[in-house]
Amino acid sequence: MIVNILRFSFKDGTTEEEKAAVLAAMRRTASVESAAFGVVGQDIGPDDGYTHTYCAAVPDLAALERYLHDPVHLAGDDTILPHIQRITAVRFSDDMDPGLATEVGRAAAAKVAKYPAWAQQLEAIPEARFG
Predict the structure, then answer these.
(1) Burial grade of 33 (CB within 10 A; 0-12, 13-18, 19 or more)
(2) Each residue of 19-45: pLDDT tens digit?
(3) Alpha carbons 8 and 53: distance in angstroms, whole number
């Protein structure tokens, strides 16, 4: 299982309606066919400025590839990313293959290369930490 956790907060001025649309888009993304499970909601971790968390898990690298390029995921990011002020990613896996992190990184880099507009949206997030 490959698990991706995103802790995030919204930009100042994001309306409750926009927040609801972002969370709905995230829930759709976390529910695509390739995802084994997903959870989206309030962040109940340390009080460090993050307000919400997104979690999605995929069973393996093949599912990760489908997840990254799923049309629901791609469309959702257009709704989600413009409203994010701060985001950090944590990824982990129960697969102990020492090359897995490299393969996950390769898949993410391939998505960036294939969708330059998506990469620009990520770069536009004021406080982003994905590494």
Answers:
(1) exposed
(2) 999 999 999 999 999 999 999 999 999
(3) 6
CA distance 74 to 41: 20
d(CA 117, CA 58): 24
Both tokens of 30, joined, read 């976390």
Tell me: the pLDDT tens digits for 62-115? 999 999 999 999 999 999 999 999 999 999 999 999 999 999 999 999 999 999
Task: For residues 84 and 125, give the distance between their C-alpha atoms in angstroms, rounded to a whole number.
Answer: 6
Q: How far is CA 57 from the centre of its chain?
A: 11
Order across the sheet with 37-42: list the strands. Answer: 37-42, 52-58, 2-10, 84-93, 127-129
**Quick one: average pLDDT of 1-14?**
98
* Residue located via tokens 């393969």: 103
Q: What is the maximum span of the chain, computed from C-alpha positions, in angstroms?
A: 43
